[in-house]
Protein: YbaK/aminoacyl-tRNA synthetase-associated domain-containing protein
Amino acid sequence: MEAFDDVRPAVDRLDLLVRPVADALRGWTGPVPVEELLYVDTEPERADTAVLAESYGPWLLDLSANCVVVAAKRGGEVTLAACMVLGHTRADVNGVVRRHLGARKASFAPMDTVLEATGMEYGGITPVGLPAGWPVLVDQAVADSPYVIVGSGSRRGKLIVPGKALAELPGATVLAGLGG
Structure:
């Protein structure tokens, strides 16, 4: 990642990560070695995907993946789920997500609900360290990527993660057509 001055294994930067993300890395058991999950320190004001690409290079847009949290409702019950899609696409919330979760209605979860449930910051939500039991829906294009740039749990910094590592997270399901 030549665009960034300092790229290191995320486990070497636990002090810069929010607790849920740091804890997930400490307990990492996925088939991808934890040392392959990298951390790059970025300015908090550059956390949004478009701004990151403007700041470090437009090619980053193709390597970025966004984690959006969806609230799926059925019979009075609400299920929160994370959706991973490439930065230049949008999650098909009312189609693929709703059907996969068996929900009557699905929409983006209220931000205050997401922040409270995850212990992460707006603009930095990441699938690494989400609450146990959450479905993590990963677009096939994200899973097939050699690596993607995702949030680090806070607005400061990004994680650079092999797509296959996201596909192997607890609760992960790879779905074709999730991002459109």
The helical segments are 19-26, 49-56, 60-63, 93-101, 111-118, 140-143, 163-167. The CA atoms of residues 30 and 168 lie 6 Å apart. The beta strands are 7-9, 38-40, 65-74, 77-86, 105-108, 136-139, 148-151, 158-161, 172-175. The longest helix spans residues 93-101.
